Amino acid sequence: MSDHTKQGSKDTVKALLVENRVFPPRAEFKGQVDIKDAAIYAEAAKDREAFWAGCAAKLDWFKKWDTVLEWEAPFAKWFVGGKLNASYNCLDRHIKNGLGQKTAIIWEAESEGEQRILSYDDVYTAVNKMANCLKTLGVAKGDRVAIYMPMVPEAAFAMLACARIGAIHNVVFGGFSVDSLRDRINDAQAKLLITADGGFRRGKIVPLKETSDKAVAECPSIEKLLVIQRTKSDVNMKEGRDHWYHDMMEKADEFCEPEPMDAEDILFILYTSGTTGKPKGIIHTTGGYLTQATATTKWVFDLKSEDIFWCTADVGWVTGHSYIVYGPMANAATQVMYEGTPDFPERDRFWKIIEKNKVSIFYTAPTAIRAFMKWGEEWVNKCDVSSLRLLGTVGEPINPEAWIWYHKHIGKEKCPIVDTWWQTETGSILISPLPGVIDTKPGSATKPLPGIEAKILTEEGSEVEKGGGYLSITSPWPSMLRGIWGDEQRYKDTYWSKWEGKSYFPGDGAKKDPDGYFWLLGRVDDVMNVAGHNIGTMEVESALVDHPTVAESAVVGISDELKGQAIAAFVILKEGNEPGKEEEDTLKQHVANKIGAIARPKKIIFTAELPKTRSGKIMRRLLRDIAEGRALGDVTTLADASIVESLKTKYSEEG
Ligand code: 6R9
Q1: What is the pLDDT of residues 618-634, one digit of tens each?
Q2: 99-110 tens-digit pLDDT
Q3: Domain boundaries, the chain
Q4: What's the gap in Å between 121 CA and the centre of ligand 1?
Q5: Residue 508 CB less than 6 A away from ligand 1
Q6: How many whole angstroms from 196 Cα to the centroid of ligand 1?
């Protein structure tokens, strides 16, 4: 293992890669892990198509494919000519294999004590009946169905019921507003909306039906609403248009033939707003998506039959699609699904759920981990989380300090951590350690998974062997997006124009260290240029969070007459620390010590919250607007709009 600490001290940007702590898989873990042999990487690279065909063969196909891959860049078709059904693969085949009694979902309501335990038989029956309800409501193969639901098992049933009859689901996160819901329904031209009377969030009712009513008033394509009862709140049911799920389910037939879908038939559309621009309807098809979501769930989490898996994402995000619904269920996993927030009724709720259900695999986001750090380890220390054997993260780069905290306080220094890099567009995890094979380094997603070819490229497209550049996926993979709904040109422009259609551009910056490890640096739009040096926001943020008083930070570049750009840092202090001039100077100096004087923030703005998308990603674009005193750009994907307003006021007051 090479020693990165010897890098030239003047090379400011590389300095933060002086994260030389290395965590090899522990012997106990290695002793039981399914994939132990690093040879899988070379094997897959030798013949990628054969490798993925081997993974596809683990699913049940009604008809085998004729061709593994047809690649006419930038359009891929995988498993051409094959026929299968995703709901069949997630349910029927397990029941045929005698697993009907196995627990599929342990659902924890937000209110403590309320729990539902559903076997694969239970889910199978519900999905079949619901599929029949959809048919009764006039939904046919190829129709789009919008799903706007709280985190209840019926959200998963709805997705699988669509898959069963070949309808294309379009899940819209239950926290989105009227306008966001309306736009996503209209863009996809959905015929049916599946929603609920409401959902619970921190003890309050989120009025989903009311929001739905307002949205569909401006959605001419919507013919019917199917409404699940969760909160039993009073809602308007429009005669002829709105139907109660429980009424329809009572009368529904128990079996619905699964529709044989072409491998390339669309399974779902999912809108990604990311941190920039108008939402794009990302298209995923059936065969390739299911193959890779299923395989990666098994390898990355070392998933075994007896595991209790818990992914804390919402089904409204791609993580919920791939690692709550399709990946775990295609593997016949037992999983926890939780309705609420980590701090309800108290800040130990996640740890209580782990203790109660003996969760063994826990997959969450860095933003959540930083919140746990801010709250302090006393919350987890009250609970017995010794059932955990593997931890994962997704959604953002994880700064080394948060990684170490997660490792120490949640994993008790025994659980490997898989930092998984992927996107809505990639459909499943592409860069992540195989936990029994790869030594992990805090803050690095390590290496591309077997079967994935990823490189770091320069603007011109030449490969960077050591150092920074643009992340690129250089050959097609089964679960890649097949396009943007209704906008082929935007698909080509956004993802394939950078290197003339040859290579996929995810929009992220990355660096490779001398061991060939990938360090994700965030969106390239966020990279700062200070006096001619490219500095990733991630690097300065990591340096700040490395200081004991800091819980979270977000860094942006602001115009500077002298240096082109200077650094402004928004900082959330850990509870019990005082903001002020002294703290500000200490933190500036700390960053200068960690990275070099070039990265010393010009301004530090203390704040209690940061503007985030509803999936927890920091919206640096808005922070730049604030820091530059500009009018705010599009704020529709913001989780809490009041945060930017108060930051704006604060910023202008402090100058
Ligand atoms: C799965 C998901 C995708 C963007 C992606 C990148 C960031 C996700 C990451 C990560 C560093 C990781 N991202 N995982 N960055 N390390 N492990 O989050 O999909 O919502 O589409 O976001 O999230 O910037 O490009 P999505």
Answers
A1: 888 888 888 888 777 76
A2: 999 999 999 999
A3: 120-259, 527-654
A4: 34
A5: yes
A6: 29
